[in-house]
Write a structure and sequence with these properties.
It is built from 10 helices and no strands. The protein is mainly α. Helix 1 runs antiparallel to helix 4 and helix 7 runs antiparallel to helix 10. The longest helix is centred in the middle third of the chain and has 37 residues.
Length: 285
Amino acid sequence: MDPEGDRPGVPFGTALRFASLTLLAVAATLLIFDGYAHAWTTATPFDDARCQVRSGFYLTQDAGESTQDSYRECMAAFLGNRLWWLAAGPALLLVVALLFHAVQRAWTRYRRNPAAVPEGPAEPPAGLALDSATRAVFRAFVVAVLVPFAIVVLGTAAGRPQNDQDVAVGTWMYGGGRDRVTAVVRASEQVFTGVRAADPAAIAAGCEALGPVLREPFPAPPDPKIATSWAEALRALENGTRSCLVVFRDNGPDDGSMTSEFLKGLDQLEVTRTELAEAQERAVS
């Protein structure tokens, strides 16, 4: 009986088993959804990352409702209808629960011994006899596992924004950012190939090809510091490209701005690439 004495008490072991079953059901449902709800064929393995980048909605950061709608609209073309998978998860759990129920009943009948038992002093049920031991085990589990886990989670909450930002940078890279940076680097190299060959026509052709690459619309990296160095690199390269066309395409005067702006742009481009690599390393570690 419970302390009030007005209703039967529930054995502690039963409460523990019920809590474990509830946690198992929740974990299995999340596993099913995470593992199979995204199983539709997509154009590339990085479509989810591309949708995050294009919409500006990174799953590790908070965003407005309109940004989330943009992301969902992008992903709708790949995920299809999730209704069947959402229904399949609880249905599978129900089947497993029924199997456990059937096995438990059969096991209980098997464990019962119909043979006559010699008369003797009545002993308390095993469940009640082990109740104190079960409590001790549960307390040890809480102290050894749950409490440290909660401390780690709460203790790292302050550092989570930076880690989330690094993860978002990694998503930006996989979602097209790496291709974007590579395109700018290769287009810039074409200009310097003409410079090394001392070929004015090749230099002008390289600058004409570089301009559209620099102006191609693409979201900035989701890190303010990296976004600043990236914007400065693009701006300086754009200024150098304009001066390049004036000198080598239009035969205008050379005021030296082409060289200075290109060097500044390449320097900021290298800074950006280093910061991107460091952010990805932090996210992995």
